[in-house]
Description:
The chain is α/β, with parallel strands linked by helices and 241 residues long. The chain has one domain: TIM Barrel. The protein is 38% helix and 18% strand. The protein has helices at residues 11-18, 46-55, 67-70, 74-83, 97-105, 122-133, 144-152, 174-178, 197-206, 215-219, 223-231, and strands at 25-30, 33-34, 38-39, 60-64, 88-91, 110-114, 136-141, 157-161, 187-191, 210-213. It has an 8-stranded parallel barrel with strand order 1-4-5-6-7-8-9-10, surrounded by 8 helices. α2 (46-55) packs across α4 (74-83), α2 crosses α11 (223-231) and α5 (97-105) runs parallel beside α6 (122-133). The structure holds indole-3-glycerol phosphate (IGP). Indole-3-glycerol phosphate (IGP) binds next to β10 and α10. Residues 29, 31, 91, 114, 140, 161, 191-193, 212-216 line the site of indole-3-glycerol phosphate.
Amino acid sequence: MARDLPSAPDAAELFAKALRGPTIRVIAEVKRASPSKGAINLGIDAAAQAARYVEGGAAAISVLTEPSRFGGALGDLADVAARVAVPAIRKDFLVHPVQLWEARVRGAAAALLIVRALSPSELPLLMDAARECGLATLVEIRDEAELERALEVGATVIGVNNRNLETLIIDPTTAPTLIPRIPAHCVAVAESGMQTPDDVAPSALAGADAILVGSAISASADPASAVRALAAIPRSASTRR
Ligand SMILES: O=P(O)(O)OC[C@@H](O)[C@@H](O)c1c[nH]c2ccccc12
């Protein structure tokens, strides 16, 4: 199936373009459960949820495909990509190129790569594999050393996770502190722990182009309105380095 896919030389460019605009772009996540919260909304129909997010102005959809702790499935990715026109992102703990092909075959436009989860040789290998299979990447970092590693492998969409994946503790100052150090040619994404526009403000002021929100909108009774409120926040005029 992978061999029959059309080539996608401009995948990274298109993904970055979708995440920049006059207001903060929302990457809306389909998240049934998580290790920190347990059940969030176990009954979510991934495609229907994604359609509501897009109705609210979501610029991209993040689909958790990890089954045991997040209640995700690769089938969700296929369902979402078939339903909505915005980029679908495979969100998982990806460690092998075959997982990127799995994502692309199911219609994903991008995949998450977590710098902290990958060795110095694995990260460039997976970046190259993503380019080869026509997938854009969202490269996740949590400190300055990881930012340097992301830049070294040519990441152009960089997410700063407020959540420490080892302790599961949210530090809302992480993204606002690191985002000003992300070069202006990259898209800067603030991730995790945001529910209201007030929660997004510090990252917006720091120069974020986009935010990644999961739990709050997955639990919401009105996901379209929940996304709409977050998608209306102006992007800061402040230029990054
Ligand atoms: O549900 P939240 O706090 O809005 O967070 C969403 C997203 O940032 C989070 O799901 C996430 C960020 N990086 C990850 C890596 C793996 C699994 C999950 C994640």
